Amino acid sequence: MKHELMTLPYALDALEPLMSKETLEFHYGKHHQTYVNNLNNLIAGTKFEDLSLVNIILESDAGIFNNAAQVYNHDFFWNGLTPTQGEIPASVEESLTKAFGSVDKFKEEFTAKAVGHFGSGWAWLVQDENQDLKIVTTINAQNPLTNNLKPILVCDVWEHAYYIDVRNARPKFLENFWKLVNWDFVAKNLG
């Protein structure tokens, strides 16, 4: 099975001014595309060739894992953003309040973990096997699937996600991120 670069659910300039078209051209059009290309090249003629992205992540390591996980992580990141952010659905607000005390407390804790993450990686809202919500960070291409955690929301904290727009100001990137979160996507992932 050949993996394809996902089609964004919005135009490249739709997230402006919070996330520029130039950022999406590089982040989505070059970085994300390269992971897809690398993955297809690495799995050709191997036992991974006909597996789904999730199965490749769960069964591979090294270069194949890194590229498969980065495709998955970026797909999840782009789907978690929207140019037309609506109200937080009541079900999401209820879940976040139960787990963190309030939506604002959740955002504060998530932001602190994302900003404080050393180096490249990801900040995730996840659900464990008991349906409890947690905030975790992962390094490089790692993601929660390998720890039997269900991804709910992710923020890419690799420098290429924000350097064009805010240089090295990761806190400003997180401030912009909250204005773009697709809460309907979060609700869907919560079930």
From TrEMBL:
Family assignment from sequence similarity: Belongs to the iron/manganese superoxide dismutase family.
Name this protein carries in UniProt: Superoxide dismutase
Residues engaged in binding Mn(2+): 27, 74, 156, 160
One Pfam family recorded for the sequence: Sod_Fe_C
Lineage: Bacteria, Pseudomonadati, Campylobacterota, Epsilonproteobacteria, Campylobacterales
Protein EC: 1.15.1.1
GO terms assigned for molecular function: metal ion binding; superoxide dismutase activity
GO CC annotation: cytoplasm
Oligomeric form and interacting partners: Homodimer.
PANTHER family: SUPEROXIDE DISMUTASE (PTHR42769), SUPEROXIDE DISMUTASE [FE] 2, CHLOROPLASTIC (PTHR42769:SF3)
Manganese/iron superoxide dismutase N-terminal domain segment(s): 2-81
Role description: Destroys radicals which are normally produced within the cells and which are toxic to biological systems.
Chain ranges of the Manganese/iron superoxide dismutase C-terminal domain: 91-189
Enzyme class: oxidoreductase
Gene name linked to the record: sodB
Catalytic activity: 2 superoxide + 2 H(+) = H2O2 + O2
Protein keywords: Iron, Metal-binding, Oxidoreductase
